[in-house]
Amino acid sequence: MTSATVAPDAGASAAPLSPVEGSVIGRAVHVKVPATSANLGPGFDTLGLALARYDELDVEATDAATHDIQVHGVGEGEVPLDESHLVVRAIAHTFAHAGIPLPSLRLVARNSIPHGRGLGSSGAAIVAGVVAAKGLLEGIVEFGPDELLELATQLEEHPDNVAPALFGGLTIAWVTPEGPRHKKLIVHRGVSPLVLVPEHEMSTALARSLQPESVPHEDAVFNVSRSALLIAALIQSPELLLQATEDKLHQHYRAQAMPETDRLIGVLRAAGHPAVVSGAGPSILVLANDPSTRADAVRLVEEAADTAWQALPLAVDFKGATVVPAD
Ligand code: HSE
C-alpha cells in the first residue's frame, strides 16, 4: 500500500486537541457518488460501469460528544445511525490509515441508490466515506488514486463496484500483490444502459456462496473471449454487445437464488437485448446499443414479469465520486 503522508505543518490549533486533529474540526464537505453495475456479464469481479444515479452526503467534523447521523431517502429508518453506519466505518478506516484521530461527525445522507439490488449501494457508501475523509483531510494528508481504491476495496472485498464509483465510466479493476489497480475507459456514446429493478433484494454474500471453487477450463476460456470482446463492444462496437455479454462463470450458478431475474434475462436475450445480472443481482442490466431499444426491453419485461419491476434508463456517469467543500 502507498502510505499517506502527513504534512509537517498540518494545523495549528489550540489545546486540548492535537494540532492535526484540531485542524479538521469544523471542516465540512459535500460528497456525491454514483450507482454502479458490476460484472457486466463475463467480467466477474473485474468490470464495472458507473451510472447516473447518486447518493449525496454532507459530512462535517465536529467536537460534539457523539456522531449525529441522518439518512433520508433509501435506507431511511433501516440503516444504523451510529458508528456502524457504513459511511462512518469507511471514514474511520481512512482516518485510521492516515494515523489521524477520528473526530465526531455530523452526517446527512440523501440516498437514491436502491439497497440490496445489485447497484453498488454498499460500494457507494464505502466510496462516499473514503472520499469524504479525503476531503476532510485536504492539505493534511494526500491520497493517490491507487490508495483510495485500496482503502475502498479493503472494506468491499472486491474492486469491481468501488472502482467505477470512485473514477466513473467503465472500469477494469484487477488485484496485484501491491493492491488493486484500475483502468478507466470512456464508453461509446451509443451504449444506453437500462436497469430493471425488482421489489425483492438479494444478498451478495448468498450469491457469492453459490459460486463453485473451480470451473471447467473451457468455461474460463469462454469468459476470457467474451470479456475481451466486451471491452471492444463497449468502447467501439456496441453492435457486438449481445455476444460480448455472454457468461459462464457466475450467472447460472446463482440463477436458483433469483429465478425471475434468470427467466427475464432469457426472455430479453432471446429477443436480442444484451441483458445480464447487475452485480450480484437481482436487478437486470440491459446494455442497449440504441436508446430506442430500451423501450422495447421495458415492454417485454412488463409483459413477461410475474412481479413489479422498476425501469431506470440511466446514462453512464463519467466523473465518479466528487467531493467539494460544503457551503
Ligand atoms: N462481483 C461481485 C459479485 C459484485 O458478483 O459477487 C457484487 O457486489
Can you walk through the features of this model?
The chain is α+β, with helices and mostly antiparallel strands. The protein has two domains: 22-183 and 316-325, Ribosomal Protein S5, domain 2, CATH 3.30.230; 192-313, Alpha-Beta Plaits (2-Layer Sandwich). 34% of the residues lie in helices and 25% in strands. The protein has helices at residues 19-24, 86-98, 121-136, 145-156, 162-167, 204-209, 217-235, 241-244, 251-254, 259-270, 291-304, and strands spanning 5-6, 28-38, 47-62, 68-73, 104-111, 141-142, 170-176, 179-185, 192-198, 275-277, 284-288, 309-313, 322-325. The strands form three sheets. Strands 2, 3, 4, 5, 7, 8 and 13 form a seven-stranded mixed β-sheet that branches. A hairpin with an 8-residue loop joins strand 2 and strand 3 (47-62). Helix 2 (86-98) crosses helix 3 and helix 3 (121-136) crosses helix 4. L-homoserine (HSE) binds next to helix 6.
